[in-house]
Write a structure and sequence with these properties.
binds ligand FNR; TIM Barrel; two-stranded antiparallel sheet; alpha/beta; 15 helices
């Protein structure tokens, strides 16, 4: 069939064959070729935690990005921390009045508005010029508790002074017990309300990406809390030929945990427990637990934390509070962790990418997005309060 030019244009313009175009064909051609004026493209702010990573990658040095992103070994556990969350399916209940949600909880006597905390992470001034002070400010704007790292590049005193939301302190027990005792007291005096003793690190993990990127603390930065200790300001991992790290004590045992409980005036939690047997021992010792594989940065091929969590929860049977971290990237992940026995979760890399991308505002935005997603997940599964989140939330 022969199609005339006019008929062809008519078809493009939605005109019946033979009808008169309203404008001359030259004007019509020009109108068809000129797109309607578009409003200026406003950059869309990140709406998911994942969107902060590429922004941060562009802003941070290569070395800093690799330090944050890397996992141990072949990064099998790193991938698995998120993949195991993704494999879990939810079991929504319908026709529940979810017009009012209550996400509050009490943890070690402290009121939290929602069950999310910021995990302890080292060296924030490597990721952003304002470092831990930006993190503290971002945390305050989001109303979230921050666990300050022993390896911060800002002293716990300065963080305490800037803090407007609760601070906890993470401790690596040092061989120098006098120094460790002083550090616990300094953290308490700075206002820290709980002590998270990291127990999974008799030595550092093998993080090949970090090594290949040549990670070192840039000149002028140091582990500010460790001043006074030999090698405090360096990231030197070990003396030549040994597997040990100069600032971690490989001889740490349950005896030191008893000692720490004795000297600490705030609640003690063990960070880095995966085995139900260790969890039972911790419950007997009366200390809280953070189920964690250190963000998959230490020992590759240990299980994802969301897989270890239900076993730990069964073993502990409610005797002490359990927190968890590792791979939490979505509100549904928070819901799944609570359904598996955690009272609250912590996030690490997501807020570091927020910090690297946008400083304090990025930290705030990350927490707000995750909190909102969590609330939506609660409502859409028909759970009105944290008490209503149990294993029936998961599709079995
Ligand atoms: C950490 N983590 C960590 N843990 C700790 O006890 N003391 C520390 O100083 C650090 N430092 C640190 C630095 C960086 C760059 C990362 C990514 C992690 C581990 C952290 O507390 C937490 O367990 C994980 O980050 C949780 O996993 P996600 O959320 O990063 O997947």
């Amino acid at each position: 069939m022969r199609v005339t030019r006019r008929a062809a244009f008519g078809a493009v313009l939605g005109l019946a064959a033979g009808s008169r175009p309203l404008r001359s064909s030259a004007a019509t051609r020009q109108a068809a070729a000129t797109p309607p004026p578009q409003p200026a493209r406003v950059p869309v702010p990140p709406g998911t935690l994942a969107e902060f990573e590429p922004l941060a990658k562009r802003r941070m040095t290569h070395m800093a990005y690799e330090f944050v992103a890397a996992g141990a070994g072949d990064e099998i556990t790193l991938r698995e921390n998120q993949a195991a969350f993704d494999r879990l399916r939810l079991n929504p209940r319908v026709l529940v009045d979810v017009s009012a949600l209550d996400t509050r909880l009490t943890l070690f006597g402290q009121e939290l508005e929602f069950p999310i905390l910021l995990a302890p992470t080292a060296y924030h001034r490597v990721m952003h010029a304002e470092g831990e002070i930006a993190t503290v400010r971002g945390a305050a704007a989001a109303g979230v508790t921050l666990v300050a790292s022993a390896f911060a590049t800002t002293t716990i005193e300065d963080m305490g002074k800037a803090a407007r939301s609760p601070l906890w302190f993470q401790l690596y027990v040092n061989k120098d017990r006098g120094f460790t005792r002083d550090l616990v007291q300094r953290a308490e005096s700075a206002g820290c309300r709980a002590l998270c003793v990291t127990v999974d690190s008799p030595l550092s993990g093998m993080r090949h990406r970090e090594r290949r990127a040549g990670f070192v603390l840039p000149p002028g930065l140091e582990r500010s809390n460790l001043k006074g200790l030999a090698a405090a300001g360096t990231t030197r991992r070990s003396a030549e030929g040994t597997i040990y790290n100069v600032v971690l004590d490989p001889a740490l045992t349950w005896k030191e945990i008893e000692w720490l409980r004795g000297i600490s005036r705030v609640p003690v939690l063990l960070k880095g427990v995966l085995s139900p047997d260790d969890a039972v021992r911790a419950a007997e010792a009366g200390v809280g637990l953070i189920v964690s594989n250190h963000g998959a940065r230490l020992l590759d091929t240990v299980p994802a934390t969301i897989e270890a969590l239900p076993r730990v929860a069964d073993a502990v049977a409610g005797r002490v509070p359990i927190l968890m971290d590792g791979g939490v990237r979505r509100g549904t992940d928070v819901l799944k962790a609570l359904a598996s026995g955690a009272s609250a979760v912590l996030i690490g890399r997501p807020y570091l990418f927020g910090l690297g991308a946008q400083g304090a505002d990025g930290v705030t935005a990350v927490v707000r997005i995750l909190r909102r997603e969590f609330e939506m997940s609660m409502a859409l599964t028909g759970r009105r309060s944290l008490k209503e989140i149990d294993r029936t939330v998961l599709w079995r």
